[in-house]
């Protein structure tokens, strides 16, 4: 049988105090860990809010037309009543603390044989901690549009009168980065102001063309011929193929041909013009 | 010899334990409160995110915006409701067919929830979906700003959470593009 040779006194007060001190030190050391997790959470929210603003700005630019895309920049911040733009409220920085600076950069992608393309880059910078600012970035590409449509109502005027030689009836600028085929449709109602000396075979002619620096580069056929007395409505549908249309103008001209020199007075009542420009070949 | 604790030692030990236990209890209480408020905020953020995703999905295929929901042209304005006709099945968009459309209304109901109501052409409510619960005191805002395209709106939703014993509002926003209609009164 084993004798109880060892004494069993339990812990002394000093031992307990030392143990507690050690525990205290360990707990104190764990404190910053808790704080840093809180900081990490704040960083995460800052990043999430920056991405929110970047997505919003990207969507805003994707809503624009290809030619309407432009670089821009600004500042937003979160105030008591939600997100506000700094340009709308100069006191934003004071009121709301850390602002988010955003920049939209639009650039043309060149050097490829494909149709032109624009790159949109949105960068939003936010404050991660007291010293450091971080940036989130979103990128998107907008291809050159395949179809362009010009649709216009033309209001008439008594002062716009047909003459025996071709004069301008309607004009609109055309400028596309790629070659286009154009389908054209127009209707014009004419007003006979003065029918004096107008004969049954007297005619109104219209012709559509594309000019660059005043020089015609394409003419739409056919030319319309409309008897003045019997049909005061001009209709035309025509097309031209595969045109390079940078810095051009589309024009419709008109003239009257009368048996008696300079007979009658004819003006434009109203009209509408529809031009549909379609990309003929993506690689052309 | 086997000696037990003296009374003084026991009293000091009990006092220390009580002190530590009180500290732990307060720490646990504060941690629990913090966890509850963080969970609450996380739940709110999920609801805000889903609400905005719901708006984006339904607005894309809108085919008509009711006159009262249109924005005055060229000037800053905000609305808290949006009433429009849109695709019933948002994953099968047929913009030229109106027979498979329905009317939608984003608004706040009487209880204070932010809801999406599906409404028949005659104004009869068909369906209602709660997007953000009333307990968060939610707000929804549709904003048109000068310079925006005529088919673009900024949508913000927010809700209140308790943070550190005081209420704080959490915001989320997105930009919404309407593909087939404009948002401006012409």
List keywords for this structure.
heterodimer; A: about 280 residues; alpha+beta; four-stranded antiparallel β-sheet; 13 strands; about 50% strand; rod-shaped; B: about 190 residues; five-stranded antiparallel β-sheet; elongated
Structure in words:
- The complex is a heterodimer of chains A (284) and B (186).
- Chain A has two helices and 13 strands.
- With 284 residues, chain A is of the alpha+beta class.
- Chain A starts with 12 loop residues before the first helix and ends in a 5-residue tail after the last strand.
- Mean pLDDT of chain A is 83; it is low at 1-5.
- The relative contact order of chain B is 0.17.
- In chain B, the strands form three sheets. In chain B, strands 1-4-5-6-7 form a five-stranded antiparallel β-sheet, covered by helices on one side.
- The termini of chain B are far apart.
- Chain B is an alpha+beta fold.
- In chain B, strand 9 (152-163) and strand 10 (166-177) form a beta hairpin.
- The A-B interface holds A 7-10, 13, 16, 20, 52, 55-60, 62-64, 68, 78, 80, 82-83, 85, 88 and B 1-5, 9, 12-13, 16, 20, 76, 141, 145, 148-149, 151-152, 154, 156, 158, 169, 171-177.
């Amino acid at each position: 049988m084993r004798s109880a040779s060892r004494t069993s006194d339990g812990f002394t007060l000093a031992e307990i105090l030392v143990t507690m001190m050690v525990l205290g030190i360990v707990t104190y050391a764990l404190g910053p860990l808790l704080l840093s997790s809180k900081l990490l959470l704040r960083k995460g929210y800052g990043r999430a809010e920056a991405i929110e603003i970047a997505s919003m700005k990207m969507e805003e630019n994707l809503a624009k037309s290809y030619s309407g895309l432009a670089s821009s920049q600004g500042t937003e911040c979160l105030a008591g009543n939600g997100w506000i733009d700094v340009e709308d409220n100069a006191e934003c920085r004071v009121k709301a603390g850390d602002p988010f600076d955003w920049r939209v950069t639009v650039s043309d992608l060149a050097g490829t044989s494909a149709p032109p393309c624009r790159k949109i880059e949105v960068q939003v910078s936010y404050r991660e901690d007291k010293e450091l600012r971080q940036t989130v970035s979103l990128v998107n590409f907008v291809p050159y549009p395949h179809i362009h449509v010009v649709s216009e109502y033309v209001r008439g005027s008594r002062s716009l009168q047909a003459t025996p030689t071709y004069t301008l009836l309607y004009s609109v600028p055309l400028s596309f980065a790629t070659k286009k085929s154009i389908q054209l449709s127009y209707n014009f109602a004419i007003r006979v102001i003065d029918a004096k000396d107008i004969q049954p075979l007297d005619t109104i002619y219209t012709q559509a063309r594309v000019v660059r620096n005043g020089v015609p580069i394409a003419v739409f056929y056919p030319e319309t011929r409309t008897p003045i007395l019997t049909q005061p409505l001009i209709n035309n549908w025509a097309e031209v193929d595969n045109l390079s249309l940078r810095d051009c103008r589309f024009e419709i001209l008109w003239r009257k041909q009368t048996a008696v020199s300079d007979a009658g007075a004819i003006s434009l009542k109203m009209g509408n013009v529809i031009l549909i420009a379609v990309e003929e070949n993506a690689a052309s | 010899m086997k000696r037990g604790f003296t009374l003084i030692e026991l009293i000091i030990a009990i006092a220390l334990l009580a002190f530590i236990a009180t500290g732990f209890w307060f720490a646990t209480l504060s941690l629990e409160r913090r966890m509850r408020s963080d969970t609450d905020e996380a739940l709110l953020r999920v609801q805000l995110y889903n609400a905005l995703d719901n708006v984006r999905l339904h607005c894309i295929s809108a085919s008509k915006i009711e006159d009262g929901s249109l924005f005055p042209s060229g000037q800053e304005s905000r609305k808290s409701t949006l009433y429009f006709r849109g695709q019933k099945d948002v994953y099968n968009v047929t913009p030229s067919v109106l027979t498979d459309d329905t009317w939608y209304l984003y608004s706040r109901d009487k209880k204070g929830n932010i809801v999406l109501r599906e409404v028949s052409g005659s104004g009869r409510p068909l369906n209602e979906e709660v997007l953000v619960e009333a307990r968060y005191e939610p707000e929804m805002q549709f904003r048109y700003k000068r310079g925006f395209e005529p088919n673009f709106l900024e949508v913000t939703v927010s809700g209140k959470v308790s943070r550190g014993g005081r209420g704080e509002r959490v915001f989320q926003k997105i930009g919404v593009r309407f593909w087939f209609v404009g948002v401006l009164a012409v």
